[in-house]
Amino acid sequence: MTIEAVGRPAEVESLDQEGRGVAHVDGKVIFIEGALPGERVEFVSYRRKPSFELADATRIVRASSSRVTPRCPHFGTCGGCSMQHLDPRAQVAAKQRILEDNLARIGQVRPETMLAPIRGPDWGYRYRARLSSRYVVKKGETLVGFHERRSSFIADMRSCEVLPKRISALLLPLRELVSALSIRERMPQVELAIGDAVDVLVFRILEPLTEADGDVVRRFADTHGVQIFMQTKGPETALPFHPLDAPALQYRIPDYGLVFPFRPTDFTQVNHDINRVLVRRAVTLLDPRPGERVGDFFCGLGNFSLALASCGAAVLGVEGNAALVRRARENAQSNGLGDRCEFIDRNLFEVTPADWKAFGYFDRVLIDPPRDGAMELVKALCESPPSRIVYVSCSPATLARDANVLVNTGGYRLTAAGVVNMFPHTSHVESIAVFER
Q1: Annotated active-site residue in 72, 81, 341, 394
Q2: Bridge-partner residues for 239, per DSSP?
Q3: Which CATH number fits domain 8-67: 2.40.160.20, 3.30.1660.10, 2.40.50.140, 2.40.100.10?
């Protein structure tokens, strides 16, 4: 709910890390959703603090040359995208500036070289998604989709431009399916996982299906050519329901001849096209040599590990999720790389210098942490530093924080950095950086 009714004017100076326009009015910073750099807008605040305000743009008085018409009719209501009103090329440039600003401001470092951004398809790229489901009694229908912007309500989505078209076309049939189930009020989530040969939908159910429910779900799967899993509790309880003879869920990295089977609730990259390019760039930048020993930290199911091993290196993959470690071992064996890869389960957020030494010497290291970054790991590795580190990040702030340690304490140079546009039309900034001694 807004706290003022009349729009105030502002000149928008830049974008923040949430994709909001940044302006200064009467000595306060104003973060304006829907506004772009160079624009003059009118805004209405919905939250005020002593030093800043959060606001919505109510009128664009002077539009940016980079402003475009959002493709999705739900943009502005749905919280899935925040930047569809900005030209995709300008989105990438804005993310590059955010990366550079974080490295300079938080990390107090500057890359010697800025890498060309990694870009891919702007639409239909999202091969992983978690959709909420809610039966609305007053309407007598089910909503299936992403949450509304700044709300716990589910957006009334009838299509989605960032999902593949065939999946977007399932949103309305999914609503009808859930409404037809006896447990429609006990099915809060539908998770999507797309592989090379199968589309999987995981239904999170809080009560068992009835026999009639099962028949409805089977007909839906057969009609729309998808496989349905049922998940009763945690991710490991997700089991195939229908059909049971569907192709294996897997993705490929053709440059290295690799195939990765995975479970629909495993962590994998959302954007398969970008992931292929990212793996190729990470391996090229790390440049592992035959006979060298390489560490892959936060290795997941071996997404980078197997490509590194295919270059002749001996790879130790370390991951805190025991289920992913098992999957990584299986993937190494199925790709004929079991003799070059070892995978272990360790909590890398609590790693110590003694733990680091116990891992053994590494010539080169790849780090791909979650948003929390890898602070304890980078502090520990400075005790026995590898010659080169490639750091793949999903948070420019924690990358910058860790870069400060590597450069200003560990004696590394930040030789290169650049953005990876894994999530077009969102403010999410993926990046890759190279550190050398």
Answers
A1: 394
A2: 230
A3: 2.40.50.140
